[in-house]
Amino acid sequence: MNILSNKIASIIKQTNPQETSSIEIMQYSLNIILNSLVIIISSLLIGWFTGSVGETATVLFGFAFLRFMSGGKHLKTATACNAISITLCSSLPHLSFLIENQLWIINLSSFIIMLIFAPNPDANVRIPLRIYPFLKVISLMMVTSNFFICSSVLGLAFFAQSLTVISLPKRRV
Q1: Phi, psi (5° rounding) for residue 165?
Q2: Rounded alpha-carbon distances, angstroms, from residue 160 to 20, 151, 157
Q3: Per residue in 25-70, pLDDT tens?
Q4: CB of 55 within 8 A of CB of 96?
Q5: pLDDT of 100-127, one tens digit each?
């Protein structure tokens, strides 16, 4: 993905060198866009093949929007992120039947985790501390909405995302 985003950034820079950002900045941005597209397209294709494109879209949207508000840990590589995200978004629609009778427990667990740990933004994102309470409230409102929507697919998506915001203090050895 780095090679492709570098080639695209170089072409953009050659086309308009004065009015574009550096190749490195464009490459970074393009990497984010391309990796997101890989996850979305791959997940939706798998959902289409398995007859669950609507549920897969629900997982993608629910997970991504809650992640945008609550933050969360990142995997070490884009490849790992892509693989785990595609697997998660493609498999949750097929696992949702397992928690239909326990949906309130999943929703409550997500709510408690968000209440305690959200938001947990990426260190590279510069969000003013004064915005944190709003991000927490929006995250909690999103999770709370599923008590009324009662979607097991959305409940699993919110639960999976809530696990990424957990940040435990590092132990000293």
Answers
A1: -90, -10
A2: 38, 14, 5
A3: 888 888 889 999 999 999 999 999 999 999 999 999 999 999 999 9
A4: yes
A5: 889 999 999 999 999 999 999 887 778 8
φ, ψ of residue 50 in degrees (nearest 5): -95, 5
Counting beta carbons within 10 angstroms of the beta carbon of residue 5, is it exposed (0 to 12), middle (13 to 18) or buried (19 or more)? buried
Ranges of beta strands (E only) in the chain are none
Side chain identity at 51, as an amino acid letter?
Answer: G
Integer angstrom CA distances of residue 78 from 30, 60, 116, 127, 136: 13, 17, 28, 23, 27
Cβ(136)–Cβ(118) under 8 Å? yes
Token output for 126: 């510069």
pLDDT above 90 for 11: no
Residue 34 and residue 81: Cα distance in Å, rounded?
13
For the chain, which residues make up each domain, given as ranges? 2-163
